[in-house]
């Protein structure tokens, strides 16, 4: 069975109604994979160094926002000599289609990968009764 690939509408924070970040430092846009399996859509975001306590996810008016904060932390007893990576923040937004059940969205993080499970909602089919006047 061929797996469907759906495009998600991505919104860059630079072009999101002139939104400016209030945190100092660098802001990274995490790379993501979006796939569908059965009745669920999954978003996997690479966010190195993020834990469940350092990431916030919100959903408002069909816009899913991911915010993550990294602190510069060297291992205890060591001095940083060289680094290719600068600590900063993660920020990414997505427009979520109406077919997603907002009450059942789940998020987990493991080894720097944030996984969002977006279950599809049951179709909202309404039968309208026609009355004689």
Provide a count of the helices.
Answer: 0
How would you characterize the largest beta sheet? 5 strands, mixed
Radius of gyration: 19 Å
Which CATH top level class of the domain at 24-73 and 80-119 fits? Answer: Mainly Beta
Strand content: 35-45%
Average residue pLDDT: 82
The coarse overall form would be elongated
Helix content: under 10%
Q: Indicate the structural class.
A: mainly beta
Total number of β-strand segments? Answer: 9
For this structure, the CATH topology of the domain at 24-73 and 80-119 is Immunoglobulin-like
> In angstroms, what separates the terminal alpha carbons?
51 Å
The assigned CATH architecture of the domain at 24-73 and 80-119 is Sandwich
Q: Spans of 5+ residues with little confidence (pLDDT < 50)?
A: 1-18
Order of helices and strands: EEEEEEEEE
């Amino acid at each position: 069975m061929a797996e469907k690939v759906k495009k998600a509408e991505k919104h860059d924070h630079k072009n999101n109604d002139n939104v400016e970040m209030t945190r100092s430092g660098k802001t990274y846009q995490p790379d993501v994979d979006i796939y569908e399996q059965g009745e669920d859509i999954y978003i996997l975001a690479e966010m190195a160094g993020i834990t469940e306590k350092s990431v916030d996810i919100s959903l408002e008016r069909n816009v899913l926002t991911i915010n993550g904060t990294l602190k510069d932390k060297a291992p205890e007893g060591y001095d940083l000599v060289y680094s290719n990576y600068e600590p900063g923040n993660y920020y990414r937004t997505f427009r979520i289609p109406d077919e997603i059940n907002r009450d059942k969205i789940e998020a987990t993080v493991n080894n720097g990968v944030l996984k969002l499970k977006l279950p599809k909602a049951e179709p909202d089919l309404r039968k309208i009764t026609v009355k004689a006047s």
